[in-house]
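Title: Prediction job returns without error message
Component: structure pipeline
Severity: low
Priority: P3
Assignee: unassigned

Description:
Job completed but the reporter wants confirmation the result is attached to the right record. Sequence as submitted:
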Amino acid sequence: MTALCFGLPRRLTRVMAVWAIGAALLAVFDSAASAHAGLESSDPASGELLATAPASITMSFTEPPDLDLSSVTVLGSSGATIETGPLERGGPPRSLELALSDDLGDGVYTVSWVVVSEADGHLTPGVFAFGVGVMAGEVVPAAEAAAPPTPGPSPLAIAGKVLLYVGLALAVGAVVTGLFAFGGVVPTRRLLLPVAGASAFAGAIVMTIAEADVVGASVGDILTSAAGRSYIWLIATAALTLGAALAASRSASGGRSLGGSRSAGRASLVLTGVAAASAMFVRATSGHAAALVHAWPAELAQLVHLVAIGVWIGGLVPLLLLVRERAAGGEAAPVTEAKRFSRMAGWALLVVVLTGAARTVGEAGGFGDVRSMLTGTSYGTALIVKVALAAGLIALGAFNRRRSIPRLAHDGTLLRRVVAIEVVGALGVFGLTGTLTSLNPDGPHVQPPPREPSIQASGADFATTTRVTLVASPGTAGPNTFEASIVGYDDRTPIDADEVTVLLSPIGRPEIEPATLTLEPRGTEPSPSANEPGGGSDGAHEGVGSAPPSTWTGTGTQLSLAGAWDAVVQVRSGARTTEVPLILVTRAPVAASTVSRQPGLPEIETFTLSTGDQLQVYLDPGAAGANELHVTAFDPRGDELPLSGLVVVAVAPDGHGEALDSTRLTPGHFSAAVEVGAGQWRFEVVATTEGGTVLQAIHDQEVEP
């Protein structure tokens, strides 16, 4: 028996250490943080301006949303609720789709959403807005749709988690220390094991009730939802732990008595440990770890972490009870057993530190983000307090190993007092753990501010003296705000200009006269002081003067048609005028696309537009060098759609755009020769049907060297 008890713990703890190292490495290098279901993207996008109303709203989240427990509400400009179809699963993974009515008119629409993650059961709210037939700057979420704050830690949920963690840790600690450190004996088993099982079972029940309270649903609705499956498994495994613990508390395997108690039957002890570990597994696969992009390495690390905590902290209570029983019975102090436990707890502590560090890095999103998580979130604050408290427990454990255990043969008072303090501290660790699992490692979910839609083009004059970047917002046909950044080509310093105008002409529409827009300077730039490099040397000018403005702005309706436009920016300085030719293409409406890839053939992208028409675009051969871009139009029936004209703008990786000369091959099929280099290219396609309808698409393609 002695050889068994000394050999198994050593081999067991070594195996646990190796397992922990592997799990920790996997969790660090194969995880990406994503706790709580945040909005990843939406169609329409936040702040998007549409010419026509969309048929539906599609929202993609960072975690799979529970369809039964999530809700999406659409409000009009007045705050009134808009009638919608039922909330359904979307086509993309982790998405929800909501159909809109056919008679949706012009206006600003606010989307208020509340989702519950299937991965970890956490609730996250949010809000965004889009516009239909409105001007830029009008898209502001309705006041009535302000998203409720993400719920903080629920006291009831924390209490349930503490009961669960304490019960499972006690069960694992009693089994492991009893089998491998105390010679098959579980002290006060008739009380300890049932208490551990009952605590775990009660914790699972309380957690389920707390989840229903946070989500605002009944317990029945929770248990029948996708997110509720983990609670069913948790209750089942906790109930199994309680049943096995009750059986083990009444069984005996022929071991000798210790203070009136007998050693529990090994089979029932093993069953209790397996049941508790199963409940830990359920918890590991339904918490923060389950929300990561690649969940299984983090789940493995979390399971090992929980088991090791059970061995380390859960074993403290059996140790304290064993010392008390020996003292009360007048028997020799359990010095050997205490040494075995100390050695085993040391290895378990190593496992806890490794897996805990791995999980912290994984939830932060990487080594570089750990500091920001620790200093910038409530999760990080709670984690720091937990680590500090755990460090105190480690220090007390080291004190026991060096001082208390060597004195145990003569006086067990010191060990009992120190272990009692450790048990109290362990309760604090479990309380902080319950709080941590209710917090978001990423901090409060903040909806990103709407990005103002726009189009832009950059270029330089023929002599490469002036560089211009022209931005038009919102970039659709109609009123736009233009902003031109005008700097020197080489030094990028503002150009001293007297006047800046933009001459706009629609490409392929010679019957429409060019339109001119005069831009005004926006503010001034600080110039170097006399004491700074580039400043004056005579000391006559102190402080900060004025340099030429680098940004010129204006508003107008010159972009009156959808399509491609020649935009010549004229910069006049005295008697000299510099012209910078650019090409602007109005913003293409959102279109669904599919890509066909077959060996030996070009990559073909097919765009399906809101009219039902299609544009098929491909670059042949698609490698660096001479290429031909092919564009073919089809009607909703799949027949070739005759076109009256086609404009293709090729945007190189450096942002320079060039209109290509296209050749008609058939009524609806054009090709355009283009020389491409390696890098990311964008081809903006504007096709006009014989009926005057403008079809637009943007084909992005990575060109290999």
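Comment from assignee: result matches the submitted record. Residues 155 and 292 are 26 Å apart (CA to CA).
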